[in-house]
Specification:
By secondary structure, the protein is mainly alpha-helical. It has a domain of 197 residues: Glycosyltransferase. The protein contains 12 helices and 14 strands. The chain has a 3-stranded antiparallel β-sheet with strand order 3-4-5. It has a 3-stranded antiparallel β-sheet with strand order 12-13-14. β13 and β14 form a beta hairpin. The longest helix is centred in the first third of the chain and has 23 residues.
Amino acid sequence: MDLQKLSHQYRNELLENVVPFWEKYSRDEESGGYFTCLDRQGKVFDTDKFIWLQARQVWMFATLYNKVEARQEWLDMSLHGAKFLKQFGHDGQLNWYFSLTREGKPLIEPYNIFSDCFATMAFGQLYQATGTEEFGDIAKKTFDLILKRQDNPKGRFTKNVPGTRPLKGFSLPMILCNLSLEIEHLLPKELVDETIRKVVHEVMEVFYQQDTGLILENVNPDGSFSDSFEGRLLNPGHAIEAMWFIMDLSERLNQPELAQKATDIMLRTLEYGWDQQHGGIFYFMDIKGYPPQQLEWDQKLWWVHMETLISLIKGYRLTGNAACLNWFEKVHEYTWKRFPDPGYGEWYGYLNRQGEVLLPLKGGKWKGCFHVPRGLLQIWKTLETIREIPKIA
């Protein structure tokens, strides 16, 4: 593999194809914020605004400004979304709604803590770009509220009856691994250190199952296995994405053994989740091999494959494990053959099990300006740091 050529490929895709798509089609000049429901050609097919996708796009353009080049148009794009979020995105107490109308009227209440997580990321990154104290305050106060809610993320919006099956989910500890580094510059060192210690323990010891070597999506409060639909659930993409968050933390903590463990888990998950018949990575699996309750279990999703590529190249850089490079080549080939759309730009999000386009949309309720551009940026920058190593393949 020519890693220098690969680095250019990921860079060019980001800057010449994916970012221009969102710049051209997503900005709502009349009502503020962004359109995310875009068809193959970039035409808006629904005008509802989903807070986590609005915040992700604010974060993405601020990140491009901070880490690629200080282009004014990128900062302006980020500020455009931040203005809308600040005015309409929360209930006045920094509890962030799930969705709004185009004009900013609340549609769905603040039941989903991930709106809060991505708002924190967005305003934290924008604070770095501008130094505006208000942005930093929004990020810090929202993060404090997340920590207060972390043991009961949905609060009064939970559907479960208390006490019958008190499972805890993997998603929040996983995202806190990334979020704690994202806004480290705004927080007291003691709080960052304590948060990191707690989430590393949760991800690598509580949700990680020693007997299978895999990470479950839901466990009993003590970390034990729940033999139920939820308890048997595996989400290979989630586990693999979490492992590059852990790899980043391993560098922050100067713990190479943590990077080694994360790489091992990532490779084991990938081998388990790879579709031997058609290629690609399954969306959902049941750890006992029973039929998953999610009917979309066998779809191949854009974010799963992009996050896997990030984890593989970071795992290789940190451990030198050749299996990472071998898998990177395999996943890269699968991904680039199927997800990018050379006709109209950006990437498809949803393939069927056979790898054929299932939905031609470029954005919707769940897909926005985030996983594809973030992944391209992460992989490009990681490849730049390792491409000089001789005898790489």
